[in-house]
Amino acid sequence: MNRNAMRLVQVLFIAGAAALAYSFVASARDGELRKSCTSVCAMAPAYAGGDRMAPDFELATVGGARFRLADQRGKTVVLVFWNTACDACKKQMPGLRQLAAVFRHDPRFEMLAIAVDESEAEVKAVLEQHTGVTDPFAVALDPESEIVLGRYGTKLFPETWVIDPGGVIRMRFDGPRDWSGSMAMDLLRNVSRGATCPMTVESMVARGPGAQICHEAAR
After folding, report:
1. Cα–Cα distance for residue pair 192/164, rounded to 1 Å
2. Is the pLDDT score of 22 beyond 60?
């Protein structure tokens, strides 16, 4: 084999190796993308993506502690807005209790349920009826809806917000979800490690690579 032929073989070998490596990396990247989007697609947020910072607030919890959102930086925060007259809110309470139990001793996560009710006794009674205990997770009251409506614009319940460790709103869920399932837990773990699905959802319209993955999963 002459020198030119050997060079051609070397070039072809290098090109083939590069193509194989690119294919492997692309496949791994696609697999990671689909992994980060699977739970998002399954949970179907009403809002996702963007760089909107969560409005800060401070409230006293039913147990007497103070909860300030800005103090939770470094954690993934789940905010649940509800009231005691909301049947759909009660429907997801058992799942929220299980989710809180899973993450209770994990410093990467925090949950707060804010009820727009005046009666602490009534809130505790509803929690006990639907979760078996009066304090399944941290609960605060916002009877004048200064936080729930005034800062977050929530009028219908339940509404659940997921805020990443940097304080950015990553997702909002309108209506009840199964928060006890593996998809909910995977979603929160992905948000915690920064593996968010590249998708924006506004006014029920999804855009971005993640939207295509969700579309394919739904077929």
Report:
1. 6
2. no
The continuous run of DSSP H or E covering 202 comes out as strand 200-202
Q: Are strands 47-48 and 205-207 parallel, antiparallel or unpaired?
A: unpaired
Could you tell me which of 72, 128, 71, 65 has the C-alpha nearest to residue 103?
A: 72
**Paired tokens of 57:** 């607030």
Q: What is the CATH number of the domain that holds 139?
A: 3.40.30.10
Phi/psi of residue 139, nearest 5 degrees: -130, 140
Number of domains within the chain: 1
- Domain-located, residue 148: yes
Outline where 51-206 has alpha helix (H): 87-103, 120-131, 182-192
Q: Which residues contact 58 (CB under 8 A, 6 or more apart)?
A: 66, 67, 68, 69
Distance CA 32, CA 3 (A): 43
Contact criterion met (CB below 8 Å) for 200 and 73: no
Residue 146 in any domain: the answer is yes
On average, the pLDDT of the chain sits at 87
Q: Is the pLDDT of residue 7 over 50?
A: yes
Q: What is the pLDDT of residues 58-101, one digit of tens each?
A: 999 998 899 999 999 999 999 999 999 999 999 999 999 999 99
Q: For residue 129, which amino acid is it? A: Q
- Domain assignment present for residue 135? The answer is yes
Q: By residue range, what is the domain housing residue 86? A: 50-195
Q: Is 173 helix (H, G, I), strand (E, B) or coil?
A: strand
What confidence tier does 4 reach under pLDDT thresholds 50, 70, 90?
Answer: low
pLDDT of 104-120, one tens digit each? Answer: 999 999 999 999 999 99
- Indicate the pTM of the whole model: 0.83
